Recover the amino acids of this structure.
């Protein structure tokens, strides 16, 4: 990944939430997030939006790493999440995998799990529209 992309991520939502990108290669990203009080919902459980931010950011990073020739960016056009559990402390990890890599769209799947015991807490899928210079 380019240092320009990393600088932009650090200065935007992924940086604000403390997301770490552990591994990035074509078709795969592994990311993590230490659970902090600002990631929680008022009921004390991990906020769904925090989980989605981790999964979507991992998929987005993967999309950038696998853009087709001539493409310069992407935008998320659809996403879905199924929540299977939660986490109260520690860290959560997302593994994102390319399910479809076309010229105009990419589809990514991600699983989010608690780091301490690898229990899956969410399954995520998103569709990215590939953008080209005008």
């Amino acid at each position: 990944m380019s240092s320009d992309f990393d600088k932009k991520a650090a200065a935007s939502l992924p940086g604000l939430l403390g997301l770490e990108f552990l591994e990035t290669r074509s078709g795969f990203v592994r990311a993590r997030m230490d659970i902090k009080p600002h990631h929680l919902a008022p009921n004390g459980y991990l906020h769904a939006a925090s989980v989605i931010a981790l999964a979507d950011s991992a998929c987005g990073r993967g999309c950038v790493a696998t853009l087709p020739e001539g493409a310069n960016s992407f935008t998320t056009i659809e996403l879905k999440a199924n929540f299977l559990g939660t986490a109260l402390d520690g860290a959560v990890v997302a593994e994102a995998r390319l399910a479809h890599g076309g010229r105009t769209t990419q589809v990514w799947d991600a699983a989010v799990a608690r780091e301490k015991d690898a229990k899956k807490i969410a399954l995520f899928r998103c569709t990215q529209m590939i953008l080209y210079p005008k």
